[in-house]
């Protein structure tokens, strides 16, 4: 989708927003015919606030149930409201589960999906005997004890630039399955196991499939070195299951 920067000779400005949301109630970021999306809520609220037909573009189109602390979106507007003030006005019109963390004017040709960036995701696993209703929307409850040291060893094979076909949803339409994982950290915070992944881009369901595979490693069903074999197979059926969306949060997008 292309956003025009000129309209009948009237000056336009492009505004970038940092968007945080709990994804539980939404069908994902992108507008869908079968449910309410984060993008749709933002489009409606901005259009009402600015008196224009606003369509935002997000840097990451997160899936249904996935959360974000730092997604990025841009839109064009003729409104006179300064870019850094739009976040305050917009938050008054948004539901409690979507909050703009800041806004500012950017260059007219800036596009959040066409610039170099590094994205950081966290996948949280509640690894205990009983589930916690307070954390049920933000963690994947898994009662089988997991060995974090084995998970770290398995994850080490994924760091670097590789073809991640084995860790991508079937029939994904992309020009290349090659991505670069800069770092994977796996650590415990009391009863939660956190998988933190930083990379220059991710395929559809890639982080959730990595999490599902590392869970299999942690419970002893896949040897750590088996992750290397899965990667080299370039075959989705060789990897573990896709972990549930609720455990995943887009933490940050760092523009380079």
Largest sheet, strands/sense/barrel: 10 strands, mixed
User: Which overall shape is indicated by the principal axes computed on the Cα atoms?
Assistant: globular
Number of strands: 10
Report the radius of gyration as a whole number of Å. Answer: 20 Å
What structural category do the secondary elements indicate?
Answer: alpha+beta
Element string (H = helix, E = strand): EHEEHEEEHEEEHHE
List the helices and strands and how they pair.
Layout: E1 13-21, H1 38-50, E2 57-58, E3 67-77, H2 83-91, E4 98-106, E5 117-126, E6 140-141, H3 148-156, E7 160-163, E8 178-189, E9 192-199, H4 206-218, H5 226-233, E10 248-255
Parallel strand pairs: 3-10, 5-6
Antiparallel strand pairs: 1-3, 1-4, 2-3, 5-9, 5-10, 7-8, 8-9
Helix pairs in contact: 3-4
What would you note in describing this structure?
The protein is of the alpha+beta class and about 260 residues long. About 20% of the residues lie in helices and about 30% in strands. Strands 1, 2, 3, 4, 5, 6, 7, 8, 9 and 10 form a 10-stranded mixed sheet that branches. A hairpin with a 2-residue loop joins strand 8 (about 180-190) and strand 9 (about 190-200). Helix 3 crosses helix 4 (about 205-220). It is globular and about 60 Å long. The protein starts with 12 loop residues before the first strand and ends with a strand. About 35% of the residues are buried. Mean pLDDT is about 95; it is low at about 1-5.
